[in-house]
Amino acid sequence: MSDDLADKKFETQAVHLGRVEGDETGSVATGIFPSSTYRVDYPGDESGYVYSRWSNPTRQALETALATLESGRHGYAFASGLAAQNAVMNLLRPGDHVVSVDDLYGGTHRQFEHLMRNFGVTFSYVDGEDAGSFEKAANDRTRLFWIESPTNPLMKLVDIAAAAEIATRRDILTVVDNTFATPFIQKPLDLGADVVLHSASKYLGGHCDVVAGALVVNDDGLAEKIRFNQYAVGGTLSPFDSWLVLRGLKTLPLRMERHSYNSMKLVEYLETVPMVDRIFYPGQDGKPVPNKMKLPGGMLSFTIKADFETVRRFVMSTSVFILAESLGGVESLINHPASMTHASIPEDIRRARGIGDNLVRLSVGIEHIDDLLIDLRTAFDKIRTAVSREK
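Predicted structure:
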């Protein structure tokens, strides 16, 4: 990062970070360098760019920007959030143990249970709202604490600082998936975490037009191991996709403010709906909020007092909210976790963790709040009418 940006506010850094080092064209927009290979001065020369799996100017510009925004020293961009996650899991060895939050993304659970267990890594799942549960589940083989905060899809908040203190004392790495919050809302490295992970497809990109992942760390030794895993496995982000995420970063603060405003207004509405049983939203349940986030973000979930078919009808009845996987774009999305994002988790485990057939998850976009409110009201009216007819 250039010295003139070091003391600037997050919003200014988000706009101006991401220049390609050595680009003397005067281009205001970051350049896209699609080259897969580069001319070198002599055999074995690694003083500059050599091969894009190892390093690429556009991707490096993004990685530098991400590291700065997350208060980190080293950033790495991957072809997906799960590819970034895999680079972390490849730090482990057979017999190693991981303590993870139990309420987590279905794809993460799938990678843990269906891939990493094949290589002798074991897992324990705990309620992340109790930071002490991490220590209770740890043993002498525990190498990593895996945290989402807020969690997906029940929006639980983890005391990152408390969990990181336990991990540091026991020589355990703390990884925090910061996808829902983004560095504009919270910075896990400042709270003691060792690794920050993002599915950059979500809020960082922000427009549902890119699949990407990222890792940010401070420790030089850990960074070198992650860099090696990135290069050796090859799940790197393409130059064009790196450029898309860089473009998204420029409006991240503005979008997160609007996402948060809209979601708060929708929570106020949902609290008045008799068919809504429970709302899951950061800080909404009145509990003390650990490491209080700057804003609540744009994600919320709620349960409906209805059977699966009625809930299914509900998520198919919206017009502004799009029924779709993923989250974090400018468009509002509606999702049924049990049959979509978390369908890979066995039903008995899913239900035990509170992910029932009546749970609905919203990724609240930046549309006008009046249109979002009308859309949800209309969907509730439709299922009320349908239920009345059936009676």
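Summary: The longest helix spans residues 369-390.
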